[in-house]
Structures are given as structure tokens and as C-alpha cells.
Design a protein that fits this description.
The structure is a homohexamer of 72-residue chains. The first copy, chain A, is built from 2 helices and 4 strands, in the order E-H-E-E-E-H. Chain A is of the alpha+beta class and 72 residues long. In chain A, a hairpin with a 2-residue loop joins strand 3 (52-54) and strand 4 (57-58). Chains A, B, C, D, E, F: Residues 2-60 form the 4-oxalocrotonate tautomerase-like domain.
């Protein structure tokens, strides 16, 4: 009975990317823990950039400064 | 001090249904655990169908296939 | 696809009371929204009294002062 | 590694107030627990008044009756 | 800035399996959304079987009846 | 009606520090948003080091390597 909540900043995640996240997490539960996918629920929640704080700053402010969450 | 979070797919839940959920959950806490309703908070969060995954698929895709969450 | 999280102070909730909460919430989703119980998951999380704050005080301190969450 | 979720009724919280919440919570983690702000994430979630229940009533109904959450 | 919460029934998940879940979810965020792993936090929460309800029953009761969450 | 959840790694947070967190967050809601403290609930959840992942690693592993969350 896994339930997985994914919280992300709202920055243009596509429907197809969401599908890949859902499929990927469900497969991970199945492959690692042998969980029946019919008992795995995944919820994605996008958060506006004004509503996510990191290092004491709104992400909207960080993005204005050119600071991204991209992998280096 | 109960706090209850209800996550649901966004599929036309009415204001009146939400009121019934809130009343029902609060009464359940009061009847089962003798909790003062003034200390019971209930939060309902509707989730877009692209953002809820079940059995590895987006619910939006399941609905397109005619698969519902209705009671049989 | 409802998922419901119930957070409660840890104050002697019995296994039988938990079963009543789970049954009650699942029935409420079924009666109010016609949701299939096989798609309804309920998670109960008990919180230690030092870890729940109300009105700026730990509930453990409130309980020492004789302040309860009981219905009047 | 603190993660903090703030859930609030959606009642005109400004961008500047959100920034104060984010800064305030991050500083609290740093001052009280010596946590590196680069490991502190804060997420604010505003909840519509129909979706928050208190004492068995929707907050939207309480507000119509003139009942606020303001400090006395 | 992803934050992922994984809720699971407490049924003997090993430390090594938890590490695989954490690695797998973090890689998924990196591969799908190009997210820097230093901004990805994953929290696993195991839930006692009395505290997880499915189809209106405690999972502890379902397990006594021989009903598992295993993949068929 | 604010509800605040604080998730922290379980690393010796004292009862007194928890009280400071609860008081600090409640005051912040009152000072910034004029919220009545009797409507503010704060829940602290400590997470075992094996259950928190950062940058793809369990925090327990990071701590063994001498990597802390301390402010520099």
C-alpha cells in the first residue's frame, strides 16, 4: 500500500513528464518492494514559485537572480 | 487535536458535498474519540486528473478509457 | 481515488477505535461521492504530545494544566 | 534537513507576507536547531475557503457569518 | 526543488531497500526533469498495519485473512 | 486557520527546542498574518536518518561520512 506525494515547483512540467514520473515511481515500488501497482497511488502537486522557499528566499526571487534547480 | 486531509481527484465535487465531507469527518472524530469539534480541522485538496497516478497511469488516461472510481 | 490522512494526538486511541475511523471515513467517501472503497486509502498518524502545538504551547503542557480536547 | 509545510486559508496573503513567512521559518530553524538554510525548504499552500472545515463548518460559511481567524 | 514523501505499510522494508527507493526517486527527478539531486529530498514514512485502512478495513486485518499487497 | 507541519531528521531535538519551534511558528503566524493562536496548530515529525534521503543518499550514510546539516 504505497502512497507517494511528489511536490515540485510549477515550472512547465508537461503532461508527458508527469506520466513518466508516475510510471517511474510505480515501477520502483514494484521492482524494489514487489508492490502490486493497483495498490500504488502517486500524487503530483505543483507549487507556485512564490510559495516555495529555499535558503530563506522565495524561489521566484531566486529565479529572477538566475539561480535554477537544474542539474550541473 | 485532529487534523484531517482529504485528497480527491477533481471531478465535479460540489460545495454541498464538501460540506457533507467536513461535517461527516468532524462528527466521526466527535462520536468515536469524543473530540471537541473546535479542535478539529479538515482540509480538502482536489487533484487534477493528470496529477493523480494509479497503477502506473494518469487518472486522466484511465478516464479516457472509461475506467471510473465509481462504486460497483 | 481518495486518500485521507488523519493526524491525532497519541492519547490511547484503541485498535477498535482506529477501525471505526477507517470504516467511517471510507463509508463517507462511498455515501457522499460514490467512491469505490477499493480506491480509498486511509492513513492514521498518532503524534506525541510534545510534538503537537496548539495556541503556541505543546499539548503535553496543556494536558499537565488539565486542558483536554474533550467535547464539552 | 527540515521541510516545512504551511497550510493557510486563501484570504489575500500577499507575496511580501509569504516572503516573511519563509524567512521567519528558515531563521527559526537556523536559530533554534543550527540548521543550514540551504537544507531548509518551506512550502506554502493556500486552501480555498470551501475546502477548509473548522468545527464541522466550511470556513466560507463561517466568514459569511462574520467569524474570522483574526487575533482578538 | 522536489520534495517526495513515500508512505508505506511497515512490513520489513530493509535499509538497503530504502536506499534503493531514495536513489531511484532522486534519479527519476534528475532524468525526467533535470533536477539537481542536491535540491531533491525524499522522506520515507512507514505506517503500522493497524493505521492503514484499505477498502474500509485495517491492513492488519487484511493480512490476517491472507490478503497481501504483493504483485500478482 | 493555519496548520504547519515541520519535518526534521531525528537527531536529538530536545523538548525545549520543540517548544521554541512551536512558539516561534505560532508567533510568526500571529505577527505576519494576524492569526489567532487558538486557530494555529503545529505538528513536528522527526524522521529517522535511514528514512530521509538527500542528493540520492540516506542521511544516515551522509552522517557516517561526516556531512552534517549544521549552519556553516
Amino acid at each position: 500500500m504505497p502512497y507517494i506525494k511528489i511536490e515540485l515547483t510549477r515550472e512547465g512540467v508537461t503532461r508527458e513528464q508527469k506520466q513518466r514520473l508516475i510510471k517511474g515511481v510505480t515501477d520502483l515500488m514494484s521492482d524494489t518492494l514487489n508492490k502490486d501497482p493497483h495498490l500504488t497511488h502517486v500524487v503530483i502537486q505543483e507549487i507556485d514559485l512564490d510559495d516555495w522557499g529555499y535558503a530563506g528566499e522565495q524561489v521566484s526571487v531566486l529565479r529572477e537572480k538566475g539561480i535554477t534547480a537544474d542539474k550541473k
